[in-house]
Design goal:
Blueprint: E1 5-9, H1 15-22, E2 26-31, E3 42-44, H2 47-55, E4 60-63, E5 69-72, E6 77-82, H3 93-98, H4 109-119, E7 123-127, E8 139-141, E9 154-158, E10 177-181, E11 187-190, H5 205-209, H6 216-221, H7 225-243
Parallel strand pairs: 1-2, 1-6, 2-3, 6-7
Antiparallel strand pairs: 4-5, 7-9, 8-9, 10-11
The structure holds S-adenosylmethionine (SAM).
């Protein structure tokens, strides 16, 4: 039996998709930017427009990793995941103003949820902790709880019962990961790997994140696949229980 299809909205280079694939799903990604490193079938476009197209009863063209075009209908899809961009929650307004950028980032969580509810699919919406007020009863996952030296806390809302992974920060107490130079020239080591901006030792990122196909931008945006492996197994169990 082939793996059930999971639509990954806002897929970037596929951290979340990889974990769902590990859990037994067949991911198809949608992102507004070209994502040549995304390792599964891919549609480039606006996620809201793509969902609206599927809900209207039209098909979406996808390109698989060996360049074949295929068409996807809503009835082909078993579940969906969405990682709307988090920039609107990260208090970057001041940074943008300082850099002379006139735009603000839109909050896409609400519009995305509306379309996912309308689809009647089991779904997950993932985001950063600063987005908590915009998510409904999310659970939290911490990399340390999955035995990884990563404290990348992420929240997961779902429309089915799901558990998170509590922190286990105490597992990682030895300061051995590079954090970069401080403005005062001081160099500090961290107990966990830092994956953001120009921080951390980038050679430490692949093993800590469980990712070996991304560039720097992909790493900074991604969640470790182990997070969605945990989520995807619960989603699969839910779908199998409903089908049974
Ligand atoms: C936080 S990243 C997702 C990371 C991904 N879940 C992972 O684990 O690798 C958000 C992505 O949303 C994409 N994006 C932003 N606005 C979008 C839109 N309107 N439609 C589709 N994708 C969009 C960005 O290009 C970016 O790749």
């Amino acid at each position: 039996m082939s793996a059930p299809l999971l639509l990954d909205l806002y897929c970037c280079q596929g951290g979340a998709s990889r974990g769902y694939a590990d859990a037994g799903w067949s991911p198809v990604g949608i992102d507004i930017d070209p994502q040549p490193r995304y390792p599964f079938p891919f549609h480039q476009g606006d996620a809201i427009e793509a969902m609206a197209t599927l809900l209207r009863g039209d098909s979406l063209p996808f390109v698989d990793p060996d360049g074949q075009v295929q068409h996807l209908w809503l009835s082909d899809i078993t579940a969906a995941h969405a990682s709307p961009p988090c920039q609107s929650f990260l208090n970057l307004g001041a940074v943008n103003r300082a850099l002379g950028r006139a735009y603000e980032y839109p909050n896409l969580i609400g519009p995305t949820r509306e379309l996912l509810v309308e689809s009647h699919l089991p779904f997950v919406i993932e985001n950063v902790e600063d987005a908590k007020a915009h998510l409904i009863d999310p659970v939290r996952i911490c990399g340390t709880g999955l035995n990884r030296p990563i404290r990348r806390h992420r929240l997961f809302e779902s429309n089915f019962g799901m558990t998170g992974i509590p922190c286990a920060h105490g597992r990682f107490v030895e300061p051995k990961y590079w954090t970069g130079w401080r403005p005062n020239g001081e160099k500090r080591l961290s107990t966990v790997v830092q994956v953001y901006g120009n921080a951390g030792g980038q050679h430490e990122w692949p093993e800590a994140m469980g990712i070996d196909w991304m560039d720097r931008h992909g790493f900074v945006e991604a969640i470790p696949p182990a997070y969605t492996d945990h989520v995807g197994r619960q989603m699969l169990a839910h779908v199998q229980a409903v089908t049974a």
